[in-house]
Amino acid sequence: MQIETEKQIMSDETNNLLNELTNKDYAYGFVTDIKTDFIPKGLNEEIVRLISAKKDEPEWLLDFRLKAYRYWLTLRMPEWAHLDIPSINYQDIIYYASPKTKETSRHPDEVDPELLKTFDKLGIPLHEQKMLSGMAIDAVMDSVSVKTTYKENLAEKGIIFCSFSEAVHDHPDLVKKYLGSVVSYRDNFFAALNSAVFSDGSFVFIPKGVRCPMDLSTYFRINARNTGQFERTLIVAEEDAYVSYLEGCTAPMRDENQLHAAIVEIVVLDRAEVKYSTVQNWYPGDKNGKGGIYNFVTKRGICKGESSKISWTQVETGSAVTWKYPSCILAGDNSIGEFYSVAVTNHFQQADTGTKMIHIGKNTRSRIVSKGISAGKSQNSYRGLVRINKGAENARNHSQCDSLLLSNTCGAHTFPYMDVQNETAIVEHEATTSKISEDQLFYCNQRGIPTEEAVGLIVNGYAKEVLNKLPMEFAVEAQKLLSVSLEGSVG
Amino acid sequence: MLTIKDLHASINGKEILKGLNLQVNAGEVHAIMGPNGSGKSTLSAVLVGNPAFEVTRGEITFKGEPLTECSPEERSCRGIFLSFQYPVEIPGVSMVNFMRTAVNEHRKRKGETPLTAGEFLKMMREKQSVVELDKNLVNRSVNEGFSGGEKKRNEIFQMAMLEPELAILDETDSGLDIDALRIVANGVNHLKRPGNATIVITHYQRLLDYIRPDVVHVLYNGRIVKTGGPELALELESKGYDWLTKESTCSNT
User: pTM of the full predicted structure?
Assistant: First the structure.
């Protein structure tokens, strides 16, 4: 019991930090003044060819892009989500923007000091001396990867961690084998769009029997104006491999909306495990709903091998609109899928997020914990599908969807879908809705705790189960974020 | 220590306190008794700055400084503690986390550095024993699933942690069996210091057998209508409130 308490306190150390931050606005809203190489705005076959040429891509990849583009032309933007999205002019977006590095930096590892400064400011040091220990980082700005740290150290173990563009050149066979194998370009509107114009992202390959010795992380930064970011991440864990991967995202404060449509694919073989954590903090727009990122993301992993495992943990605080359902296809027998989510919406933010658990193999298990927090005039929806296929003997699912309301003008919605085709399955769904009461806040006040801090305490307590799943450094970051995002939401 | 002059307070436009006067000095224990609806709980709520109540007239000074403009958390940090009649549950927030935040807020106001994890745990273990609070309770969420008695003991535990100069016990005896009552009262007595004062709000003489008051007041219809020594409580126990309320109604007219 004592240890329990100690542990609790250690993780509570961070609570002091909440305070410092509760009165801050979006802290990552600055713009880096750097020359950027843009391509003309708009989308057509020429643009797709141009992006591919910029990246000096092989023929097969250009073909993939063109097929996706042609398919995309036949699609319409999905309208089933509980979201109110103004129409997007896809011809008004720049699909490729790359920060120009100084002519002098011939050496590939030399990064423009201006970019180093930017990532420093975001708390992501990329200098050799200052690199975070225990975490390798791929830093992506707009359409290109700026730098990947610890690449060589990881290579010694056979681990590949590099930008997607590099992987296309250095490991074409692996990319060719797995690209689009989990999320086909025909999957949905945004997946087709991404497949046509995707720029950079990360590529991770953990060979058979290797446990990745450090967390791998990608930091996505949108900087350029009028551009969209279309990154693509591919993670492959071979038999008995393990990796914990983290992603973080921020963008400048701007009055116009910017589009972010990413794809993440994960392939996990026998007994391998991938933990994927996201702290999403794209610019959410201002208090009146002006500006912010449209975050339309397709994330999916397949547990291909037996006894394999994929665990998604997400803390979603940013973006004006979020449309995102990190999913697991549990193909291998005894495989496990997990989804832990905290989604916060404030002011005029909208989120429609959840997961899909597709049980195909025998004895497959999945667990869903979703915690929605809505404030202001925001709309927050959980949408989840649990499907048990015919052959999925003894499949198990447990879903828990909680909503916490902080205002009388926000909305919380739950859309759980269940499709059970095997009678041995056990599928459970629990849901709660609660509100922070005046009485709770006053009780905290009477003990000396100011309201803003009390909200932070209550919200973090509510989200604890999910935050505990994050790696330590990220958990601290996420706790701070929760409080900042809800600043001014009560009272 | 506490001076209340001509205090008028209302909730939703309805006046509950109608010109209340009270003087509490350091080292004293005051009991405030009175029938239901006389304004006892309103008085405690107003003293700790509950925003549901509005002070329409009069003044409250605490240690010579006016109190009415202070936020509830400032009052707490200045040394006023309320043991709630109905302590609220806060799911997901552990008692440890809650108390640590509260204690460190108090320290911050005093210009002191926050306690380390070790220091805080040591303090918590000491104070837990004061009210014989089960070790397991502090690892649970604030008041969540606590029995009535546990909630009240938890209030006194928090009081021990925050070491207030003025403690207000709002019907702390309600819903307690005799053993729990003794434990709670022992806790309160244990925490008594010459520089501190306590206001005990209660319906019954019962609690006053354990917490000996120096002064007993009778609150009726928003005013204090009678003040006396401990013997007044005994008198009320045998005679009820009727004789006083009649007296007060007569004197009013």
Answer: 0.83
